[in-house]
Amino acid sequence: IIDAKQLMGDVMKEAFFSLATVKFTVPLNINHIVLQNVTKANLKVKSLKENVAGVQLPVFEAYHEGSNGYELVGLASGGQQIEKLKKHYIDAVKLLVSLASLQTSFVTLDEVIKATNRRVNAIEH
């Protein structure tokens, strides 16, 4: 979890830097371009259950669905920077999903371990 959190800082730094680059290179406001081209989310999160030592742990998975709606975005200027921005933010979202999965599993396992310890203590005394 610690490595993922440290990696998250680097990934978000790259994502924010590429956003600043796009805002500098694209003369138009990028928000309007993105809002006009988005109809449905392409990157979605799926929730699954995984059995670890008799405990059902939630596992989150990011997956792509649909086609790229940004083929012609930035055709006049800044197209490469917009693609790089999209790639960086997709990487950031995927890392966030894996971090959320790890964190949720950790919390769930911690609760189960505490409950088991209480049962063992109750049997001993």
Q: How would you sum up this structure in a few lines?
A:
With 125 residues, the protein is an alpha+beta fold.
Short key terms for the protein model shown above:
125 residues, alpha+beta, two-stranded antiparallel ribbon, 2 strands, 62% helix, 16% strand
Describe the structure.
The mean pLDDT is 81. With 125 residues, this protein is of the alpha+beta class. It has 3 helices and 2 strands; from the N terminus they run H-H-E-E-H. The chain is 62% helix and 16% strand. A two-stranded antiparallel ribbon has the order 1-2. A hairpin with a 2-residue loop joins strand 1 and strand 2.
How do the helices and strands line up, and which of them pair or pack?
Layout: H1 2-25, H2 30-37, E1 43-52, E2 55-64, H3 79-124
Antiparallel strand pairs: 1-2
Low-pLDDT sequence parts: none
Provide the spatial order of strands within the biggest beta sheet: 1-2
Shape: elongated
State the helix count: 3
Indicate the structural class. Answer: alpha+beta
Q: What would the average pLDDT be, to the nearest integer?
A: 81
Number of β-strand runs: 2
Largest sheet: 2 strands, antiparallel
Q: What's the end-to-end separation, in Å?
A: 36 Å
Strand content: 15-25%
